[in-house]
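Q: Give me a backbone?
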Amino acid sequence: MCFARWAKNSADVIHCLSVSHGCALEEERMSSKRRGIGIGVALFCFVWGCDSDGGDSASPEGTGGIPGPSRPACSPSGGEGAGPYADLFAGLGRLDRIPVRGRLVNEDGAVNNNDATPFNQFSQDEIGNATVEVAVITSECVRIELGSLTTGPEGYLEGVFEDVDVPAGIHRLEVSHQERVAGTSSIRVLANDYTGLLIRSDVDQTWLDTRFMGTADKLELLGKPASERRTLPAMNMVYPAIKTGLDGQTDRSLVFLSGSPRFFKRVLEAKLVRDGVHADGLVLKPFKDIIIDNLLAFDLDEISAELHEQIGYKVYNLLRLRLDVPPTARELLMGDDTEADVVAYALYHRFTAGMLDGDALVAALGEVDVAEPWLGEIQQLAPTVATHLAAHPAPVQTIYINRTDGLTGEHFPVGEWSIPGITRYHTGAWPLVLDLYEDERVSENDVRSVRMALQAAGHDASRLDAAASAGVDDGFLDPMTAATFADAQ
C-alpha cells in the first residue's frame, strides 16, 4: 500500500529519471539501463519524497514461492546453486486452470530468503525473452506437462494454462530452462465444486506493522530483511486460526494482495515463514515494469498515475484471482484504512454480486479517479468474470478493515463505503477474532490464544475491552461474545 505514494505527478517521475544513470529513452539502450532507471526512481522517491506528506527461516534453498504444507517430494526440487533460477510465486488454481507467475533470473549461488532485502532484490540479473517448460508433479508423484511460456523483457513469467486436467490437491509446480529444473513452488488446485472460504488479505497495516509516512521510514524499509519486519500484534496467530477453522482441520486458502513492489517478494515470503503462516499466493505491484513500459511508450503521465493507483490495481487483481478458482468458492477480504482497501473491496463485491455490470463498474472506478490503464484492463476482464460467476454470484462473505493508529486515510472514509452486514471496521486482532468466532470460523481456543498473545504484547484488559466495545457499538459484535472472553486467560 505504501508505495502508491512514491510518485504523485509526472514532474516527480521526470526528475527521478533525470538522475538515474543517464536514462536514455532509445529502446535499443533500455535493456542496459533498466536497473539504473529503477534504482534511481526508487531511491529518489524514498529519500526526496515523491510524497507530499512528509516484509526466520528462509524458503527452502533452491525453491521459489511461499513454502506450503505437504508439497510432494517425488524428485529433487532443482533450481539449486548458481545459474538460471525460476523465482516462482506459490499458486492457487482449479482443475482446468493453472496460473504460473514468477521471474527467471541468474543467481550466483543457492537462494536464501533470509538474506534478502528489498534493496538488494531491486536489481536482479533477469533472463528476458527466454522459453521455459512448465509441469505439475502431483501429490501422487504423477508428472503432468503443461507446456511452455516465454519470459518478458524483465524476466517475468505471467501465464495461465487452461483446458488442462490436474487433480485437486497440493502439488509441485516445476519450471525448467535449457533442460534443467530452474525452480519449483507449490500449487493448490481446488475441485470444481469447492465451496470453501478463500482469504484475500492486504499486507501493510493488515498483517505487518509497516510505517511508511515519512522519507526516513521508506528508506529504512528498503534495507530491512524479514527478521526486522514487525507483525501487528497477534496477527501471526489470527491467520493460521482462520486457515484451520473451527475444527482445526479446514486448511483454507490464503492469498496476499499488496501494493508493495515485486522486489519485496523474498522478504515477505521469509516473513511468512517466520510467522508460521502458509499462503497460496502473494500478489505484488509491477513497479519497475510500469515505469519501463510507459517510458518505451513515451507516456510519462501514465507512470505517475499507475504507480499511485491502488483501487484499480486491487480490483483488477481480485478479478483475475477470481478466474483462477471455482465459481462456488466464497471469499473473505481483509484490509485496512490507510488508503483505499474499503473502496476496492466494496466495488469488487458490488460487481461480483451483480449489483453493477461491467460498464457500471468501470464508471464507478472512474469516479474515484482510477488510472486509465487499469480501467482498460478491468473493462476487458469484467465480462469473463461475470460469466464465470453467473450461477454463483455474491462470493464475498465478509470485508474486514483494520482501523489504524494515526495512519487513517482521509480520502475514502470507511463509513461511506461500508456494506451493511458485510463490512467490519475493527481495531486490531481482538474484535477481529471475536467476530470470526461468532461466524464459526475460528475456535474458542484460538480466541483465548489471541487474547493471551495480545496481553503478552502489552495490551491490557481495558484496551482489549475498549476494542471489543467499539465492535459492539458498530453493530457487528454481540455483547455476550465480548463478555464471555473478557477475562479469558
The CA atoms of residues 433 and 447 lie 6 Å apart.
